[in-house]
Every structure is written in structure tokens, then in C-alpha cells.
Amino acid sequence: MTMNFTTLIITSLLLIVLGAGVAASSNELMRVLIGLEMMFLGAVMSILLLYLQYPVLSFAILLICLGTAVAETVIMIGLIYRMVRLGYRATTSFKEKYTEE
Q1: Neighbouring residues of 93: CB distance < 8 A, sequence distance ≥ 6
Q2: In the chain, how many H helices and how many E strands?
Q3: Over 70: is that where the pLDDT of 90 sits?
Q4: Are 14 and 29 in contact (CB under 8 A)?
Q5: For the chain, what is the largest distance between any 2 Cα atoms, rounded to a whole number of angstroms?
Q6: Residues 6 or more apart from 47 whose CB is under 8 A from it?
Q7: CATH assignment of 2-98?
Q8: For 30-55, what is the mean pLDDT?
Q9: CA-CA-CA-CA torsion sign (91, 97, 99, 101)
Q10: If 0-12 CB within 10 Å is exposed, 13-18 middle and 19+ buried, where does residue 51 land?
């Protein structure tokens, strides 16, 4: 049973760290979104560990995470819609769009 806890902890932390790295180092909108979703998946996986000890608390935290994810999704859809209306492509990097060489 200890092996499963250790594996779950390492996997969730790895997803959070990789997602943060992708989101922080990317110049493209879609890669930032992928990084944020990886971080969210890691956070939800870590809630599974909490569920085994404190089920009521973990359910409350899960509801907060899901509410945050829904808000994040709505905001990102609005941003993508606005950027498309302004002529910004999802694969265009910020450097290509806003710097002149």
C-alpha cells in the first residue's frame, strides 16, 4: 500500500512541476493552456491521497478545484475568442506577433 501512495505523490508532483515549467517557459497560447491543465490534473491526483484520510475535506477541496477549473475554462475561452477577433493565431508566438525585426 505504501508503494501506491509514493507513486501517486511522485506522479502528481511531477505533473504539477512539468505543467508549471511548460506554462512558464512557453510563448504560445496553446502550450500555456496545456501546462495549466497538467498542473490541474496533478492537483486533482493529490486530492486522491487526501480522500483516503479525510473524505469530507477532500470532497470540499475537489469542489473548489472544479469551480476554479470551470472559471479558468470560461476565462480562457473568452481570451481565445478575443485574440482570434484581433487576428492573433494560437500558434503564433508573442515574440513573432509583437516584435519587429
Answers
A1: 27, 28
A2: 4, 0
A3: no
A4: no
A5: 58
A6: 58, 61, 62, 65
A7: 1.10.287.3510
A8: 82
A9: positive
A10: middle
